[in-house]
Design brief:
Layout: H1 3-16, E1 18-20, E2 42-44, E3 65-67, E4 88-90, E5 111-113, E6 134-136, E7 144-145, E8 156-158, E9 166-167, E10 179-181, H2 194-198, E11 204-206, H3 214-218, H4 223-237
Parallel strand pairs: 1-2, 2-3, 3-4, 4-5, 5-6, 6-8, 7-9, 8-10, 10-11
Organism: Microctonus hyperodae
InterPro entries: Leu-rich_rpt, Leu-rich_rpt_typical-subtyp, LRR_dom_sf, LRR_domain-containing
Pfam family, one: LRR_8
Length: 238
């Protein structure tokens, strides 16, 4: 990205609080970007060649939206925990296999997209995020949903296209979970907890592409209770 182009982007950012440096084949954050640290509300660094996001990302404490998608990241810096105003975070389509515990400090987060990475364990540090609405972990390497999931606060959880074979019955205790997507995993019908159907608040459960047919699911214990919730929500929509 040439100096003239950088200057134009920075001038725009000073006026709007929005900096878009996507699709620039960038491998490092421009050194003088830190001059905008107290101004930026939205930062888009997607579709670049970043392998590492430096700890200095923590100086952008006014950010509400951060897009790191479509890079070559394998980890994320602990300094992300300093972005306490962040509401929307996208790090999809990378090679991330580990998440920093500091994400638990981002208590204003509403939407997190970590799809298409190499994550092997459900990030339970996110249980601290009381305002979380949507968590997307599709296209990762998850194999189970552990007991700790009960503490997650999101309304929608996308676990499509993982390798999940086990789901803790404590998922039924998620206080706000309405939509659960588990399409194209490795689930047997017996792996779907009865409590999830009978006792949870889930009104949209997507299970296509697993190791059983929908007809079998329709005969499962608790299916009728789940369908009552599903139907009630559909009626409210129309």
């Amino acid at each position: 990205m040439g100096n003239t182009t950088i200057k134009q982007h920075y001038e725009t950012a000073r006026k709007t609080g929005i900096l878009n440096i996507s699709n620039r084949k960038m491998m490092e954050i421009p050194a003088n970007m830190k001059l905008l640290a107290s101004l930026l509300r939205t930062l888009d660094m997607s579709h670049n060649l970043f392998k590492v996001i430096p700890e200095e990302i923590g100086i952008y404490t006014t950010l509400k939206q951060l897009n790191l998608s479509h890079n070559k990241l394998t980890t994320l810096p602990e300094a992300l925990g300093a972005l306490v105003k962040l509401e929307i975070f996208d790090a999809s389509v990378n090679q991330i296999n580990k998440l920093p515990d500091s994400l638990s400090k981002l208590t204003h987060l509403r939407r997190i997209n970590l799809s298409d990475n190499q994550i092997t364990e459900l990030p339970l540090m996110l249980c601290e995020l009381k305002r979380l609405d949507v968590l997307d972990l599709s296209k990762n390497k998850l194999t189970c949903v552990p007991d700790g999931v009960a503490g997650l606060q999101m309304a929608e959880l996308n676990l499509n296209q993982n390798q999940i074979t086990i789901i803790s019955e404590k998922m039924a205790d998620c206080p706000r979970l309405k939509t659960l997507r588990l399409e194209e995993n490795c689930l047997q019908l017996s792996a779907i907890p009865v409590r999830l159907l009978k006792e949870s608040k889930i009104s949209m459960l997507a299970l296509e592409g697993n190791l059983f047919e929908h007809k079998q699911f329709a005969d499962a214990e608790g299916y009728d209770v789940y369908m009552e919730r599903y139907t009630a929500v559909k009626k409210k929509m129309f």
